[in-house]
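Human: My hope is that you can spare some time for a protein that puzzles me. I am handing you a single protein, as its sequence and its fold in token form. Could you go through the record with me and say what the backbone is doing? Take your time, and here it is.
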Amino acid sequence: MPLTLSEYAEWGDPAVAADWLSMRAYSPYENVRPAHLPALMVTANLNDSQVPFWEPVRWVARLRAANRGRNPVLLLTHRHADHDGPSGRSRRLRERAVEWAFLLSLLPDATRPEAPSHCAPCRARRGCGSASPGSPRP
């Protein structure tokens, strides 16, 4: 679990008042305040031995409650991932694709790159976008 005895030298001992106050000062969860937040995509890995999955879930809930703007605060959970993220090439590539899709979704329409023309058959088959380059995005 986080903050075991071996980590006290680095982070401090939460049983010591001064250390606890220091930890609280930089705690992402404790420092959420009502604000216009940027778009966020937070990940929670179910097999993470260092950050239990419920911690990012709680943090996202608090962020959503504090968000005074319209930017999304998304939670992405990985069932087959540990502290280092998904294992295996295809899972890592899928995670990168989701991250890039999230980032690209934040760009204004005029600055979004068009999908390569070879994607048109894929889009027609799977319904994953507009049928031809230059047509309106879904």
Observations:
- The first helix runs from residue 8 to 11.
- The two ends are 44 Å apart (CA to CA).
- Residues 114-138 form one domain.
